[in-house]
Amino acid sequence: MTPKIEPPTDVAIAAWEWGKYLGHASEEEGVDVCVSSWNRVAPNTLPALAKAGGNYLSSLLIGQEARRLGFAEGIGLAPDGTVSEGSGENIFIVKDGVLMTPALVHSVLSGITRDTVIRLARARGIEVRECAIPRGIPVSRRRGVLHRHGGGDRAHPLGRSAARGRR
């Protein structure tokens, strides 16, 4: 089937109130996360930077697996085995006063929240590194050294030491 050159466009917008993505106690108590067996989409399969419906399938599988295993959230890896993002949010880590987040080449969705966090941090003089993040860092138990923060269109930013990794 060959699409028309200029097919008609239909748009629908729905809005509703959405509670705390990871629960009301997540900011104070933290959440348990796991590294999923599912990866984020490879950039040569679908454009990972696009907010397209198909790109959310891996996030859905990552989140479902985490909840089935008793975790609040799952972390997806990029095709190269480094950290990509959570099923519903970007990953930010503070280490030695530097805010680190996976670079866009690691199958990260570049969204408004990610961009805002990076811009606000830089405006406050915080060094930001968009880089490869090894798998073990976001679920580290070394409190006081590493802090994981998440934020996305559906997820509220989590505070210091918000993620407690069990695996």
Explain what you see.
This protein is of the alpha/beta class and 167 residues long. It is 17% helix and 25% strand. It has helices at residues 26-29, 56-68, 112-123, and strands at residues 31-39, 73-77, 83-86, 90-95, 98-102, 128-131, 146-151, 163-165. Strands 3-2-1-8 form a four-stranded mixed sheet. It is globular, with a radius of gyration of 17 Å. The model is unreliable at 138-148 and 158-167 (pLDDT under 50).
Approximate helicity band:
10-25%
In whole angstroms, the N-to-C terminal distance is 46 Å
Order of helices and strands: HEHEEEEHEEE
Structural class, from secondary structure content?
Answer: alpha/beta
The whole-angstrom Rg is 17 Å
Which whole number gives the mean pLDDT? 78
Large-scale geometry: globular
List the helices and strands and how they pair.
Elements: H1 26-29, E1 31-39, H2 56-68, E2 73-77, E3 83-86, E4 90-95, E5 98-102, H3 112-123, E6 128-131, E7 146-151, E8 163-165
Parallel strand pairs: 1-2, 1-8, 5-6
Antiparallel strand pairs: 2-3, 4-5, 4-7
